[in-house]
Design goal:
Blueprint (H helix, E strand, L loop, with lengths): L1 E6 L4 H13 L3 E4 L10 H13 L5 E6 L3 H7 L7 E3 L3 H9 L5 E5 L5 H13 L6 H11 L6
Parallel strand pairs: 1-2, 1-3, 3-5, 4-5
The protein binds D-ribose.
Length: about 150
């Protein structure tokens, strides 16, 4: 499994913890930045990670900012990306099972590192259920090909 990660300055500390967790668990992970604490713009990192997922160069994306919200807003504009902001375990599993989410967005100002680590593990280890959800996910993907 290959994961690409990104954060702005507000998500840097949590992203570092999670990247380390991914490496220790044997997953391949690439950190696309930011790597320093200076203020940066979250859209740059959301686009970089989302493009890698969209292109099939990564199985999953991980984006961390202050809230996770801005990252998700940007990532979801890239075709093929289904980014979810998650702050508890139930949604981490459900958005994989039902939405086939492929980018996890976390807020460093919202969740502590212990909870974030649990959310990440649940997200990465929970399979998409397909079945009745496939038509609905297909409807999301159809929006990439249409003006609505
Ligand atoms: C940065 O201050 C903050 O706005 C950003 O990290 C994020 O929370 C935006 O959604």
């Amino acid at each position: 499994m290959r994961v690409v990660a990104g954060s702005d300055h507000a998500g840097l500390s949590l992203k570092k913890v999670l990247v380390e967790q991914l490496r220790k668990s044997g997953r391949e992970v690439e950190d696309l930045g930011t790597l320093e604490s200076a203020s940066v713009d979250y859209p740059d990192y959301a686009v970089a990670v989302a493009r890698q997922v969209s292109a099939g160069n990564a199985d999953f994306g991980l984006l961390v900012c202050g809230t996770g919200q801005g990252m998700a807003m940007v990532a979801n504009r890239i075709p093929g990306v289904r980014a979810a902001v998650v702050s508890e375990g139930f949604t981490a599993a459900a958005t994989r099972q039902h939405n086939d989410a492929n980018v996890l967005c976390l807020g460093e100002r919202v969740v502590g590192p212990g909870l974030a680590a649990q959310i990440l593990e649940i997200f990465l280890s929970t399979p998409y259920e397909g079945g009745r959800h496939a038509r609905r996910v297909g409807m999301i993907q159809a929006l990439d090909r249409k003006d609505v």
